[in-house]
């Protein structure tokens, strides 16, 4: 019986796979491994895991394509592994629905802690929303349906983008640091705060009239971000 859960590690580097496996097993996880995207999809189908650790750069089917295919059939938590400097891949992974990313070279112990944290958050029952609908002018969120609309058209938000926007709309005019948002939206008491930065950037691209000059999600220099109602 899996104590913590089953994790699928997909990476073409055998050394990385072995190190990650050992640390995850020490943390109580059962670990399956795959050396490329094709094998990863096959193992996922045969033994559905509770979480996937997925390398971006792999021969054949790369990690971004694997993430896309997994999101078509499952909401399993996905942690992407990206190389230092691959910002576009990190953004693309988050846009496709990845829950988090870890930059290589990484601490295996921190990755194991991150996996534990992501799984804990994913397994937490969602609280009943205080309001069925949150809105700001032409922007509305239907909380029960988890649906966002701008000017009547549905917004293609990822799960985390929706959670972040809902949090902002529920707490307008309050400045939050990246650490605050990482704790309150992601449920993590540690982690790479640039995850928040990337999600805010992606959210602005979808809800701001001019993303380069945001009026809804304002940057509070030296602090973090604040949502301003009625500015669009």
Keywords:
232 residues, alpha/beta, Rossmann fold, Arc Repressor Mutant, subunit A, 2 domains, 8 helices
Summarize the structure.
This protein has two domains: 119 residues, Rossmann fold; 95 residues, Winged helix-like DNA-binding domain superfamily/Winged helix DNA-binding domain (Arc Repressor Mutant, subunit A, Orthogonal Bundle). It is of the alpha/beta class.
Can you put this structure into words, describing what you see?
The chain is α/β, with parallel strands linked by helices and 232 residues long. The chain folds into two domains: 5-123, Response regulator (Rossmann fold); 133-227, Orthogonal Bundle (Arc Repressor Mutant, subunit A). Helix content is 40%, strand content 23%. The longest helix is centred in the middle third of the chain and has 16 residues, at 108-123. It is elongated and about 50 Å long. GO terms for molecular function: phosphorelay response regulator activity; transcription cis-regulatory region binding. Residues 131-229 bind DNA.
